Amino acid sequence: MTQTILGDDALPQCIDFLLNRYASDTLYVLSDHHCWQALPQASRAALQMFHLNILPESPKAEMALAQRLSIEALHHHGIVSIGSGTLTDLAKYISYHNKIPHIAVGTAASMNGYVSANASLLEAGHKQSFAVKAPDFLFLDIQLLTAAHSRLTCAGVGDTLCRSTILADHALATLCHAPPFDLHLLQKVEYEEAALSNRDTINIKALANALLASGNAMKEAKSSAPASQSEHMLVHACELLYPEACAPYYHGELVAVATVICAELQDQLWHKSTLQLRPLLSYAEASSVLGETLTQSLYPSYVHKYQLLAERLPSLQWKAQRPTFPNRLNASQLVTKLQECGCPASPNEIGLTEAQIKAASAIARVTRDRITILDFC
User: Fold this and answer.
1) Can you give the pLDDT at residue 183?
2) In whole angstroms, what is the distance from residue 50 CA to residue 64 CA?
3) Fewer CB within 10 Å, N or C, the chain?
4) What is the pLDDT of residue 58?
5) Which of 115, 127, 65 is nearest to 94 (CA)?
6) Contacts with 124 (C-beta within 8 Å, 6 or more apart), sequence order
7) What is the per-residue pLDDT for 7?
């Protein structure tokens, strides 16, 4: 269980904790140039006694980098990550691989993975979720989070509001007798989401708590499923198909737009009288986009999922069985909420066309074995 300290003085508490517990040069401190400079000068000076590795700005969360850093961090008694998604995931892998404690310092309320036991790393050109160890300690300083770039905060909003698409995807999977997780795991996220914004002001503490609740849900489910369904699958497909177009945007910004797109599809399906599967994507069609190696890995699970749905759909009475969601935001409500928070809400705001989104949604259903709206629309 991660011990989390969230408050106005979390950073000073962290520095005191490290100085009192660890001797000089026994800690491996991992950050990048931008996140390191976000710390107050006094904090940076205090950490000079440890082994510092300040990466160039915007490193990528790649398995090859994680493995190289693991070797560099050998013989240290602990690792400190200073940053958000990428740096935390790299440090999680190092901590797990080297069997050393991990003290995470979050510099932005930008993602929900701080306390999860998963690391999202690129391997063979495909972003994959690896089982690792959650940080032992997490320090989230409200002043540091508030000072982060507004786009980072928007990314966190995107990673939070996808709860609504996750709810509907969960319902589809449950109707097909394959519930991916227990719905009670989303209750805390919903509670914090309600206090997320007041007109144009984002409540950073509520956002941080919502992201933490989402991370804890993943940890309890031992899966990323409570925080990642159709909207994340669509984003991963876009990142595979259009890496240059997606590169300038944070993952959560892409998730914000994908959430609206998937919510629109869900809204449309909920007004239909029957469920109908999209045609099976052929191996040749998948490999033409994903490449031979990736298709060999992913396609068997996709075919198994398709066959399962094809068997179970005839017995479903969609019109009578489709659930209602008093606590789910529809696409229009999501757009309003995202715009209130200053977040992107349409494909053109992230440099993608409707045609590109359509192509990505066709391939996205192959990338994970989860039953989602993308299997039907």
Assistant:
1) 84
2) 24
3) N
4) 82
5) 65
6) 293, 294
7) 94
Q: Which amino acid is at 98?
A: N
Residue 7, φ and ψ in degrees, nearest 5:
175, 180
- pLDDT computed for residue 40 by the predictor: 96
d(CA 347, CA 180): 28
User: pLDDT at position 263, please?
Assistant: 98
d(CA 238, CA 258): 10
CA pseudo-torsion sign 104, 124, 300, 373 = positive
Identity (one letter) of the amino acid at 259? T
Task: Phi first, then psi: give them for residue 117, nearest 5 degrees.
Answer: -100, 30
pLDDT score, position 192? 85
Integer Cα distance of 154 and 204 in angstroms: 11
Are 138 and 81 contacting, i.e. CB atoms less than 8 angstroms apart? no
Q: Which two tokens stand for residue 345?
A: 């809400």
SS3 category, 46: helix
Distance CA 205, CA 144 (A): 11
Separation between Cα atoms, residue 375 and residue 377, nearest integer Å: 6
Helices (H), 242-327: 243-246, 251-269, 283-290, 292-312, 318-321
The residue among 25, 27, 117 whose CA lies nearest residue 79 is: 27
| Block residue for tokens 């300038």 | 248
pLDDT at 142: 95
Determine the pLDDT at residue 280.
Answer: 96
Please report the domains of the chain, with CATH numbers, ordered by start residue: 3-147 (3.40.50.1970), 151-183+222-375 (1.20.1090.10)
Residue 285: both structure tokens together: 């069609």
Distance of alpha carbon 188 from alpha carbon 117, whole angstroms: 18
